[in-house]
Design goal:
Elements lengths: L21 E5 L2 E4 L4 E3 L15 H13 L12 H12 L10 H18 L8 E5 L7 H5 L4 H4 L9 E5 L3 H7 L4
Parallel strand pairs: 4-5
Antiparallel strand pairs: 1-2, 2-3
Length: 180
């Protein structure tokens, strides 16, 4: 196959992918265009953690797509509340806020932590301690606390309010704790 993503001039380059051209998936397995089978150890960075092409999931996706796609939260719908009730029972949490992407979930967690710090603790300008070498996505806020130069170059100015400490270094994390 000559028309590959990595040689196509119309595909924006935001990753350096492996030279493998995937064509399908089933469960935990992926196949390339040459017919080689792989175990999917990445799961689209957890976005496909339920596997590929599971028949029950596909059936539910098709059923829902025939009823209603993704409505705005400006309206109520008859599926969200029962879904979140079941999710909260499963996790033992009181409330849940579904997100479309991991990056959106991280950004929402940052907002929640900052608001809690401000409203509950009275911290006007809170800081969040992050582990150096992290990867949580490519939004401008998330790359603001990335220590990876390739993700940051050319995208500043960056969001303030983050302090990095080496992953696994408890003393460094303790030293990074401030009243903020």
């Amino acid at each position: 196959m000559d028309n590959t993503e990595f040689s196509n001039p119309h595909v924006a380059r935001n990753y350096d992918p492996l030279p493998v051209i995937l064509t399908r998936g089933q469960g935990a397995y992926l196949w390339d265009v040459e017919g080689r089978r792989y175990i999917d150890m990445m799961s689209a960075y957890s976005a496909v953690s339920l596997g590929h092409a599971h028949p029950r999931i596909l059936a539910k996706l098709a059923e829902q797509a025939q009823r209603l796609a993704v409505p705005s939260r400006a309206f109520y719908n008859d599926r969200l509340a029962p879904f979140l009730e079941e999710l909260c029972k499963l996790t033992g949490l009181d409330v849940a806020l579904p997100m479309n992407t991991g990056a959106e979930a991280v950004e929402t967690a940052i907002k929640a932590a900052r608001r809690w710090g401000n409203r509950v603790k009275g911290v006007a300008d809170p800081e969040i301690i992050v582990a150096a070498g992290n990867f949580h996505g490519r939004t401008t806020t998330i790359i603001s606390f990335s220590s990876e130069r390739e993700y940051r170059d050319g995208f500043g100015p960056f969001m303030p309010g983050f302090r990095a400490a080496p992953f696994g270094d408890l003393a460094a994390f303790e030293a990074a704790i401030t009243p903020r």
